[in-house]
Design brief:
This protein has about 130 residues and is mainly alpha-helical. About 75% of the residues lie in helices and about 0% in strands. The radius of gyration is 16 Å and the shape is globular. It starts with 8 loop residues before the first helix and ends in a 6-residue tail after the last helix.
């Protein structure tokens, strides 16, 4: 690679933050709100032994964090702020087995997303932020 060429890492960070942002929006708006609804999501959290209000916080954080990632606004911090949600999803699915197509979903997909969030935090905003 010549010294005048742009390194590929900023573009990789862009693709990563767009993919993560879309995923978080899909999980907050389409899945939690669109499929399960606020009450259904809160009821699921309660069934896990978590407080119902945490469901509302998670939905809001996923939606806001997803938009921040897509726009490249403080993407490093947004990814780090969303990491506890992903680790919580790993915990939630830990009893279901490894593969995510197991009944009720396994833990490998949330763990993979957690690793991607860590990589995003390391890379930063990337190009076009």
């Amino acid at each position: 690679m010549s010294s005048t060429a742009d390194p590929p890492a900023p573009l990789a960070a862009l693709l990563l933050r767009l993919a993560l942002g879309v995923m978080f929006l899909a999980h907050s708006l389409a899945l939690k709100l669109g499929v399960f609804g606020l009450a259904g999501t809160a009821q699921f959290f309660v069934s896990l032994g978590l407080p119902a209000w945490l469901a509302y916080l998670v939905i809001a954080m996923e939606a806001i964090g997803g938009v921040m990632l897509i726009l490249g606004v403080q993407a490093r911090w947004a990814a780090l702020a969303l990491l506890p949600i992903l680790l919580g999803a790993v915990w939630t699915h830990s009893g279901n087995g490894w593969v995510f197509n197991a009944p009720n979903g396994g833990w490998e997909y949330p763990l993979y997303l957690a690793v991607l969030a860590i990589v995003q935090a390391i890379l930063g905003d990337g190009a076009y932020a």
